[in-house]
Amino acid sequence: MKVFINALFLLIFICSFSIGQIDSSGYINIGNDKIFYEAAGEGSALIFLHDGLIHREIWDDQFSFFSQSHKVIRYDRRGYGNSSPATEAYSVVEDLNRLFTHLEIDKACLIAMSSGGRLAIDFTLQFPEKVSSLILVGAVVGGFPYTQHFYDRGGHLPSDLNTHEERRLYYAFDDPYEIFPENEAAKEKVAGFVKKIPQKEHGFPSSVPPGEPAYQRLNEIKIPTLILVGEFDIPDVHAHAGAINAGIANSKRDIIPKSGHLIPIEQPTVFNDAVAKFLNALSQ
C-alpha cells in the first residue's frame, strides 16, 4: 500500500509538472535590444500581454491552464522581466508584430491586461487580420482621458516614494484599487514578483501609433471581444471599460467580484472559467 501511495504522489507530481512546462523560450533580437518569450501547448494561439506593473509571470496560472488546449505565448515588453531595457526609440506594436513573425503565428487571440490592453487594441487596429478575438482585462484605451483621482489614487498615493521600486511595492501592498484588500495572498505574490525582478529603467518611451486616438476608432474592431473588470478596480478603469464596450459592437463586459485590478492573480479560477467559456463559445 505504501509503495502504491508513493507511486500515486509521484504520478501527480509528474502530471502537474508536465501541465505547467514550457515547450520553448528564447529571445527576439531587435537592434541592440532583446525581447524574451515563452511558449507551450498546441492548438489555436493565445498571446498574453502583461500590465505595467508585473512582467509575463503575472500569467502563471493562465499559462499553465490554457496550455492544455491551446498554443500559449507570453513575453516581456522592453524593460520588464528578462527583456532588455530600450536603448533606442521603439514601438510596442511593432515589437508584438515581431513576435508574430518570429513564432510564425498567422492569427491569435490577444489576452491583455491594463496597459497591455491598450497595446492589444492598438495592434488590432493596425493588424486586424492577425487578431481572431480580444480578451481585455482591466484594460485602458489610447486617447481616453484619466481623472486626477486616477493619478493620485484617490489621495492615497504617498508623495515621499523616492524610487521606482518603492512605487511598485506601494501598488502591491497599499493601493486600494490594484488588489482588493482581502486578497492577501495575491498581495504577497505580486510583491514577490516586484522584489524578484526589478523593472529596468530606460530613456526611450514607446511611440504612440499615429493618427486618430484609438478610442475614436474602436468601431473599426469587428472581432468578438470579452471585457473583464474587477469589482473594486479604480473608477477610471471602469470608465475605460465602458468606453471600450460601447465602441466595439461585438463585445461583452463582465465584472469580477472580490477583485481589484489584477484579476488573473486575485481570482484565477473565476478568470480562467470566464475565458474558457468565451473561447469555447467561439469554437462552436
Strand content: 15-25%
By CATH, the topology is Rossmann fold
Order of helices and strands: HEEEHEHEHEHHHEHEHH
Q: Poorly predicted ranges (pLDDT <50, ≥5 residues)?
A: 1-19
Tally the beta strands: 8
Question: Describe the biggest sheet?
Answer: 8 strands, mixed
Q: Based on helices, strands and strand pairing, what is the structural class?
A: alpha/beta
Overall number of structural domains = 1
As laid out across the biggest beta sheet, the strand order is: 1-2-4-3-5-6-7-8
CATH class term: Alpha Beta
- State the helical fraction: 25-40%
Q: Which architecture does the CATH hierarchy give at level 2?
A: 3-Layer(aba) Sandwich
Mean pLDDT across every amino acid position: 90
Measured between the Cα atoms of the first and last residue, the distance is: 45 Å
Shape: globular
Computed Rg: 19 Å
Number of helices: 10
CATH superfamily descriptor? Alpha/Beta hydrolase fold, catalytic domain
